[in-house]
Amino acid sequence: MRNQVRLLGLLLGGTILGTSLSAVKAQEAASPSTSHETAPAEETVSTIYHPPAPNTPQATGVNAANLPDIDELPIDQLPQAVPQESANPKAEDWPAYGRDDRATRYSPLTQITPENVSRLQRAFVYHTGVLQPKGKLNRLAPETAPIKVGDSLYLCSATNDMMRVDAATGQEKWHFHAHESYDAIPFTSACKSVTYYTSSTAADGQTCHNRIIEATLDNRMIAVDAEDGKPCEAFGHGGQVNLMQGMGWSVPRFVGVTSPVPIINGVIVVNHEVLDGQRRWAPSGVIRGYDAESGKFLWAWDVNNPDNHHQPDKDHYYSRGTPNSWTAMTGDNALGLVYVPMGNSSADYYSAMRSDAENKVSSAVVALDVRTGEPRWVFQTVHKDVWDYDIGSQATLFDYHADDGSIIPALIMPTKRGQTFILDRRTGKPLPDFPVVEKPAPAGVMKDDPRTPTQPWSVGVPRLGFPDLKESDMWGVSPLDQLACRIKFRRASYVGEFTPPSLKKPWIESPGYNGGSDWGSISYNPQTGIMLANWNNVPMYNQLVNRKTADQLRLIPVDVPEYTPRHGMTAGNAAQAETPYGTLVGPFWNEFTRVMCNAPPYGMLTAIDLKAHKVLWQRPFGSARANGPWGLPTGLPIEIGTPNNGGSVMTAGGVAFIGASTDNQIHAVDLKTGKTLWTDVLPGGGQANAMTYAVNGRQYVAIMAGGHHLMGTPVSDQLVVYTLPEQATK
């Protein structure tokens, strides 16, 4: 198959480059600690702009709805929570982003099977009504996965409008308008899902007994009545909470929430993304807890102020530049923990100015106590990350049955490296059957920013990745293009995974910052122990530049007036203000044809039996039909493997459903063999997690076909829902 893929590789081009959503992170305020600086000030100061001082007051307009500050609630006054729909979902429902509290993305529905899936037809299409405004830079990437409770779907648009839709007909029941400014949207306009919550203080039948809660791109938290979509007046201030409180200086677009908020034992836990690569003293990556009943503040985990869990007063702010978490979190009600996949500190490609506390939790999964915000344990997946290997996937929880008969509460943590870590979720230690070893890593080449001597490798789970690159693997549309890529390879620094950043010449980053696994995460069948993962093989080609060169290239952070928004197929170059270096960031491709220099496949789909520690099947994922050199589609339905973002759903019927790839299709896959059983062309890119549910005995499959500006797929506002013909369900 590999040879066949090589023969077809020339068909692939620019529209298939996947990128990370991390593109576009307290209380003691006077100024951030500079004890970790290693470069003279003259090497860090720009000559073309002046970043605002970290203690500058918050800019007007960052508090999107001009909301008053929220009060703090003592934890002993937190109401007792009632059981939630996601704790033990009905077979026909999908009440949470990952279907259940464990984020398995596994449905027990069996009506759709390998034998009848080819008969699927569209049941309805629902339009969210949100498209790119005229004259505005395209930032749309909805990524929305609906949730389903009872007879209704609940979802959010790319700009945080919320809707309730009849799950059988697509008829809209209500539509809440968030009135979000398009200019306040971070690098990517995404709302992955909403959260369904049943109140313990509002009785059944009363207003806001059942609520839909979201956090927004412009940093609000909003709660509405699930029945009619009207704001829950007793929540926050008229149904809203200002999440910019305590954050200090920022501007619209710098900070935003793209993932659904988990609620554990009545505590809403909120994380947020911070636009990558802007400045060392970017807004904080603080994680916070709020009361799900009143919206009042409960606690904060501020990495550089670990002993102070309160809100800052008006003259202070959470510590700046700390690692942020932007992807979906997972909670464990029994243990009272929330599992937070962390990114790295601001200035992604330079680590010398980070504190010891930041280095400890960077690119780690952190278990926080949901009553106090105190870390219970930390497991790090990359040491001193300078490759943007922040964890983009959501942790999946499961019970591991050990050989001695014991049951261990465990979690699966996929990573962009393609390493999958299996941990005891009580302690954060690797399970004995899934050991983690420290292997030697390449030495650094920047004297002021040394690398760590080792990095962690999960040796009990097959790696989602290919061997290290070789010059002979270089690719191209023609022999001349291949030669150009070989020259590009030779000119770069590359010593395998963890090749360190360099100033004198480019370095190749492989895996690239979009996978392995990214925010689509994995699906897991708890009955069989089988994990299904889609992943990427898209290296990057980066180079550090000194501050003088960065100024010449006009690398400017988002919070200064000279900043100009840009569009691109990657997260783009990084200003890294207040450090000695900016960073040039791009794909490892031929700039003329926009064809990757490494040979395909660029995207894969893999089924792993975790009990047997082996790959059941693995194949290229995504066809060449919408891809080609210069971004021109070939129209060929050949499964060659394209970059992909968005996740799968596994069903007890033996079929998995996934969009994700840049062929703009939804795919039904046989879970036994990996064979594609059925596809349908979507009106836009399927870069969202698919889901399934049932109404009145009929099973449906839904996917948001909203496209993704970073992946070059067509943008739309359409949720597409499928079902079998009525006679086929009997």
Automatic annotation (TrEMBL):
<feature type="domain" description="Pyrrolo-quinoline quinone repeat">
    <location>
        <begin position="94"/>
        <end position="701"/>
    </location>
</feature>
<feature type="region of interest" description="Disordered">
    <location>
        <begin position="433"/>
        <end position="459"/>
    </location>
</feature>
<protein>
    <submittedName>
        <fullName>Pyrroloquinoline quinone-dependent dehydrogenase</fullName>
    </submittedName>
</protein>
<dbReference type="Pfam" id="PF01011">
    <property type="entry name" value="PQQ"/>
</dbReference>
<feature type="region of interest" description="Disordered">
    <location>
        <begin position="28"/>
        <end position="63"/>
    </location>
</feature>
<dbReference type="InterPro" id="IPR011047">
    <property type="entry name" value="Quinoprotein_ADH-like_sf"/>
</dbReference>
<dbReference type="InterPro" id="IPR017511">
    <property type="entry name" value="PQQ_mDH"/>
</dbReference>
<comment type="similarity">
    <text>Belongs to the bacterial PQQ dehydrogenase family.</text>
</comment>
<dbReference type="InterPro" id="IPR002372">
    <property type="entry name" value="PQQ_rpt_dom"/>
</dbReference>
<feature type="signal peptide">
    <location>
        <begin position="1"/>
        <end position="25"/>
    </location>
</feature>
<dbReference type="InterPro" id="IPR018391">
    <property type="entry name" value="PQQ_b-propeller_rpt"/>
</dbReference>
<keyword id="KW-0732">Signal</keyword>
<keyword id="KW-0560">Oxidoreductase</keyword>
